[in-house]
């Protein structure tokens, strides 16, 4: 008799435990993370794309595309302009001429980050408007020693067709007006993306 009573009690205890645990499950926090298969985001084969374009950095004239936005007090006493920061919204074209086909904009900041040489920290988004790239962006973050023939900077990510992008950009000065600072820079960008 006592035995079956103990048995009944333990059944009851288990039933209650189940009931409360299902209540607890219902009150769980919203889900924060989950594993996904790449296919569920439509990601299939990774591809490698090469883009070549020219960035027009106009510092002079009535319509500059790059402007000074900040300057440390000592920047004008530094031979390398250390402490100067510029903001750019530069046209990107398919060829080196300004009238060449517009393929996007290079928007970002470049700061003079080297105390001894002309060395920039580049923080740029390339916002494309051409064909299947229209609306997609690539983000570049790197060091630009402007007097070096070819400067390499990492592509750290992208959006649109460039989701999950990674790669590098090589910048080569095409023309530079030493007096005004106006420059046309050739970019060769190599990116993996889906
Ligand atoms: C450098 O800039 C400061 C302001 O930031 C100004 O007071 C000073 O006169 C400038 N010096 C020269 C040599 O242009
Ligand atoms: C790019 O997309 C925008 C917005 O969808 C559209 O207005 C524009 O005409 C497109 N540009 C080109 C060159 O296709």
UniProtKB/TrEMBL annotation:
Keywords: Apoplast, Secreted, Signal
One Pfam entry name: Dirigent
Residues spanning the signal sequence: 1-26
Main location per the UniProt record: secreted
Biological processes per GO annotation: phenylpropanoid biosynthetic process
GO cellular component labels: apoplast
Superkingdom classification of source: Eukaryota
InterPro entries: Allene_oxi_cyc_Dirigent, Dirigent
Localization, UniProt: Secreted, Extracellular space, Apoplast
Subunit structure: Homodimer.
Stated family: Belongs to the plant dirigent protein family.
The protein's role, per its UniProt record: Dirigent proteins impart stereoselectivity on the phenoxy radical-coupling reaction, yielding optically active lignans from two molecules of coniferyl alcohol in the biosynthesis of lignans, flavonolignans, and alkaloids and thus plays a central role in plant secondary metabolism.
Protein name according to UniProt: Dirigent protein
Gene source species: Glycine soja
